[in-house]
Design brief:
Length: 730
């Protein structure tokens, strides 16, 4: 029975049917999308279609009906008739620069009830070099991952100059690219632009913190700007924490070639005979129901397949960084933990400043690399703090930045050969620190050891914030041979992943946050090792509305750490109402980042209410489907979104006012509810009993709520409202 089911799925999801003249159709399907390629032995593999799901019959008709239309190779190497950006450029063993890939074979298999793998093998027309394209289709989530392996079967070394993970051609009247840009404190700002003839590139050459200033995620909307609930959109990202490049070439046929992969910048890879190289995965998805559906597909896929512990809930954390910076002692921490417990927090995270031997870490200039507890600050050690937190009902987490070293450290003095450097040139510092060379297995062992020692010495640690506060410049490795220096960018990231794999196999339950000066490591490559990301060092709530709007376009809300910080805000000096700051944090993974000892009694009470409310709505916010209602980018002066649980039993709505509204009032039509269901509305985190929603306490049908909506009194800047809607039996 099981085998028959698998066979049926195989026929449904991946059909490789033969046509006349040896021409084959290769079709890769998910529930709502299809890719169609055409292949014939010894001929280039042609891209035919990517869009809404096609029947087998219609996929077959592509060849007869569109046979004379212009089409591009699915994976064009430099050579043949190519005149766009190639997907692959290499130098053969005999020095030839030309590669002509032709179809050799295609195999597909059902991995389980949700995943199908298809491998297409291409080979050079003349030389013994093969390229394998591997597609993994996630049926229910409408997501496909693609990677590419090049195998050198030639007589001498082959130099891979550039290799894409995915390459697609689209055909439409116009193309709009949404991409993400920004720096530290201003991550993931959205920009949408019409693509005009030529090449638009988004990339990173930083090696580390590669999602400052661009992110590899993109959305291409065809025939008009991307809409929330309708229209065709194509989304993609490179699952990689190193240098990336995505390019969008609008050619003279008005076709768009999307190329997504490793950044070829200074990154040649030499393959000896018999060696192969596999790219990171590109993750792509299509929706004809706008970017809202695309987001929900990426979120569902990421929670199940790409995020560590995506099936758990995240705790409400209190982090001491903005509250104390490096200046604390054991007594301070105990007092902070007392307050955190009073507020209702579930996790205390001790940030930077707890370590250092001869060079104690009392500011950014010293101590990185020397991961011994600073006994002057914490005479009882970390386990004593962990034990105290546990006694108060809190878990304990700790900050580390193990890839880095201050020149003022014992590590830098003992292991100068471990530092990324370009020969004898001066090693530039950034934030007073250097970076360790993760290409070197000894450095990998050291970093694993830092983590391992920490967890063995303080078993009460159940959460680690892993930071990385600089990027690479003056690249160079004393470990890599002189003629292999260009491997650095790939080997660094692979070295990092190797350490993470060792950590994850020894400590499968530990929670890890990816921080890199805020959101500098927000990518699907790092996600499997992490439970969440530190979205931004900018905790100012108004900026956070924009930063979080961009971040959870692709990345799941449960992974998006959002902390309530003090007023005035450390980054901007703005003093926003505490309720507003709480509500913005509650729309992500809520936490707190301030010194709670400095709060007035009413402020503690306000945080207690917010944390209690968050615990009520957390299952929906963290595991529900996201529907965006009003974008802060639309300049209406409002922003709003709602989350709906998978069963549509519960919904949580957030509405924020970002400007003064003199006469206009906000009415929001909800999304994603069951039209036949009835929902009771209860405002959460109300301040002094005041309600901002006209329908508070009412029970209304899903149909009514989605067609007529509800009104809000959110006229002043920085007013906000959180609603819980619960389905009622009628
Ligand atoms: C970075 C992080 C912050 C904090 C500091 C500590 O800036 O993004 O959250 O951990 O380092 O030095």
């Amino acid at each position: 029975m099981k085998r028959a089911f698998a066979l049926l799925l195989l026929l449904l999801f991946v059909a490789t049917s033969s046509k006349g003249g040896g021409l084959q159709i290769v079709k890769i399907d998910t529930d709502h999308q299809s890719f169609v390629f055409s292949a014939a032995s010894g001929k280039p593999l042609m891209f035919r279609y990517w869009g809404a799901r096609l029947s087998e019959e219609d996929a077959g008709a592509i060849l007869s009906a569109c046979g004379r239309e212009k089409s591009w190779e699915l994976y064009p190497a430099y050579g043949g008739a190519l005149y766009t950006n190639p997907a692959l450029t290499l130098v053969h063993a005999d020095g030839q620069l030309t590669t002509e890939l032709v179809f050799s074979s295609c195999h597909s298999r059902q991995l389980d009830e949700n995943r199908t793998e298809t491998i297409i093998v291409l080979q050079d027309k003349v030389l013994p070099l093969t390229v394998e394209l591997r597609f993994t289709a996630f049926r229910q989530q409408d997501i496909v991952m693609q990677s590419v392996t090049v195998r050198n079967r030639e007589q001498g070394p082959v130099i891979v100059r550039q290799i894409a993970s995915a390459f697609f051609s689209l055909k439409a009247m116009s193309y709009y690219l949404t991409h993400f840009h920004g720096s530290s404190n201003a991550e993931m700002w959205l920009k949408e632009e019409l693509l005009t003839p030529g090449i638009k590139t988004i990339d990173s050459k930083k090696g580390v913190r590669t999602t400052h200033n661009e992110n590899s995620c993109f959305i291409v909307s065809v025939n008009g700007p991307a809409k929330e609930d309708d229209g065709e959109v194509y989304g993609g990202a490179l699952a990689w924490s190193g240098n990336f490049e995505s390019s969008f070439q609008l050619d003279d046929f008005n076709m768009l070639q999307i190329r997504c992969g490793l950044n070829p910048f200074c990154s040649e890879i030499r393959l000896l005979p018999g060696e192969s190289f596999t790219t990171p995965e590109a993750v792509v998805g299509y929706s004809d129901r706008g970017k809202g559906q695309l987001t929900r597909n990426f979120h569902r896929w990421a929670r199940r397949y790409a995020l560590a512990h995506g099936d758990r809930y995240r705790s409400v954390a209190l982090n001491n960084w903005e509250g104390t910076h490096w200046n604390f002692n054991e007594k301070d921490l105990r007092e902070i933990i007392d307050k955190a417990a009073e507020i209702g927090c579930e996790l205390f995270i001790l940030d930077d400043g707890w370590f250092g031997g001869k060079y104690p870490r009392n500011d950014a200039t010293a101590g990185l690399g020397d991961w011994q507890v600073n006994a002057a600050k914490l005479p009882g050690g970390l386990q004593s703090i962990a034990g105290y937190a546990a006694a108060k009902g809190l878990r304990f987490g700790i900050w580390i930045e193990p890839e880095m070293v201050n020149p003022h450290s014992e590590l830098a003095q003992e292991h100068s050969e471990w530092i990324v450097r370009s020969g004898e040139r001066e090693i530039p510092t950034l934030r007073h620190q250097w970076i360790l060379d993760l290409c070197n297995p000894d450095v990998q062992d050291f970093i694993f050891g830092v983590f391992d020692d920490l967890l063995s010495s303080a078993p009460g640690i159940s959460y680690v914030k892993w930071d990385a506060n600089r990027h690479v410049n003056n690249v160079g490795s004393t470990y890599l041979p002189a003629d292999e220096q260009s491997r650095f960018w790939v080997d660094y990231t692979r070295g990092l992943y190797n350490v993470y794999e060792r950590i994850r196999s020894k400590y499968p339950d530990i929670e890890i946050q990816a921080c890199a000066s805020g959101g500098g490591r927000v990518d699907f490559g790092s996600l499997p090792f992490h439970d969440e990301i530190w979205t931004s060092d900018n905790t100012n709530a108004i900026d956070r509305i924009f930063i979080q709007w961009g971040t959870n376009l692709f990345f799941p809300t449960m992974a998006m750490a959002a902390h309530v910080s003090a007023a005035p805000n450390r980054q901007t000096g703005m003093s926003l109402p505490l309720k507003f700051r709480c509500d913005v944090a509650m729309s992500g993974r809520m936490g707190i980042e301030l010194d709670p000892r400095k709060l007035a009694r009413e402020e503690i009470a306000c945080l207690q209410d917010a944390v209690a409310a968050y615990k009520t709505i957390r299952p929906v916010v963290q595991h529900g489907d996201l529907y965006r209602l009003v974008s802060p980018y639309d300049e209406s002066g409002w922003a709003a979104l709602n989350y709906v649980s998978e069963t549509k039993e519960r919904c949580v709505l957030f509405a924020f006012s970002t400007a003064l509204h003199t006469r206009t009032r906000l009415t929001l039509r909800l999304k994603g509810l069951d039209p036949a269901g009835y929902y009771k509305i209860t405002e959460q985190n109300r301040q002094k009993g005041k309600t901002g929603c006209h329908a508070e306490g009412q029970t209304l049908s899903g149909d009514y709520l989605m067609k007529c909506g509800v009104g809000f009194d959110l006229a002043k800047p920085f007013e906000s409202c959180v609603l819980l809607l619960e389905r009622q039996d009628r």
